[in-house]
Amino acid sequence: MLSSQYDFDVLYYAHYKLKTSMKKQSVFSVCLLGIFLYLFVEGCSKPEDLVAPTHFTRVPKVTNLQGAIGVTPTGKRQLLVTWEYDTLTSNLRSWDITRNINDTSLANFVPLEIIRKPSLGYPFYSDTSATFQSSFMTTDSLDVYYRVIPNGIVNNFVGQPSDVLHMIVRRN
Amino acid sequence: MHLRLGSLIFLLLALVFVIAGTAMAQTQTAAPRDTVVKQTADSTIQGGFLGTPWPERRVVSTVLSALIPGSGQTYLGHTEKGAAFTLGTIACALVTGLTENNIVGRNERIGELRAQYQIATNYVGADTIWTKMVSTKELLDNNVKRRDIFLKLTVALWVANMVDVIFFSGDKGEKPFGLRETERGTSLAIVPDSRNGFNAVLTVRF
User: Fold this and answer.
1) Structural domains in chain A (count)
2) A39 and A71, same structural domain?
3) Which of A86, A83, A81, A52 is nearest to A69 (CA)?
4) ipTM confidence score
5) How far apart, in whole angstroms, are the C-alpha atoms of residue B122 and residue B116?
6) B59 touching A, CB under 8 A?
7) A100: which strand partners?
8) Which residue has the higher pLDDT, A88 or B28?
9) Which of B171, B173, B151, B174 is nearest to B62 (CA)?
10) Can you give the pTM of this predicted structure?
11) Contact A50 B137 (CB under 8 A)
């Protein structure tokens, strides 16, 4: 029970201070929430973009890969492999010629020779291995597979390997 | 799209703060003798909510709903509606947060793959890395779509919660803590039945 007007005034003032501080805390909480929500929305991560793919055209591809079986002037059987490339692209040093006999798995291709980029015209590779001479063939035919891999100048980038060229060599 | 969504959210937030701030400013501070618990039913706001002063309970419920969606409705006595708002908003916010976490991770992954791609020395390796980048990018784009959808849902639920607590949730009155009008809980009873033998009865009151 309040005994005097003074006690009432003191109590009223204390209650008023409490209410005001509660109001300030409420406004502060709401403002803080607003800042948090705004940052929550605006702080979302932006998706990363892909870079432009450069590995497709970095080194010119091998095109029009062809092969022919013939005989050298000395009578040896010769397998001639020819191909073309984009002569406008300068990032090209040489080609690796790989071969596989009677086996199609890409891991078993054996490197034969490095063909340097010619100053004029298109490159070629002549294969006169003893394996293909009739006198050394133990079977009636051989399945020969060739694959050409270009090599670039910048960073020695190994370009896209060519399609597999399949040739059948028969014993005479 | 991101910038427009952010601007819209900011405008909505500013509108809510203006309403809440005006209501707080107009709330009358009661004398000590007037703070006794009283039963009031304040179902409609007459003459416009900005024109008339808000009771203290309405201000508290508005602030509560701004901080925790649904809590204001629960405070005013609409428990089911409040629970629905709370669960819905928290679920959408959770999915948004988890998807944002996935996006951050996938962004980092794309950054790593980009660095590997740039130092690749042969076509086969570069092509393998490129394929991984493309598939990661697809997943990233899907995550971004999902995050944006659930973020909009979260914001929409929060705004709906604020509109509901300000305009459509009347004050059902303050109840002393622990007092229940009806018996709540779950009960299971086996009731004998003359025709069927026994019946099992499950009752849930909430």
Assistant:
1) 2
2) no
3) A81
4) 0.72
5) 12
6) yes
7) A145
8) A88
9) B171
10) 0.67
11) yes
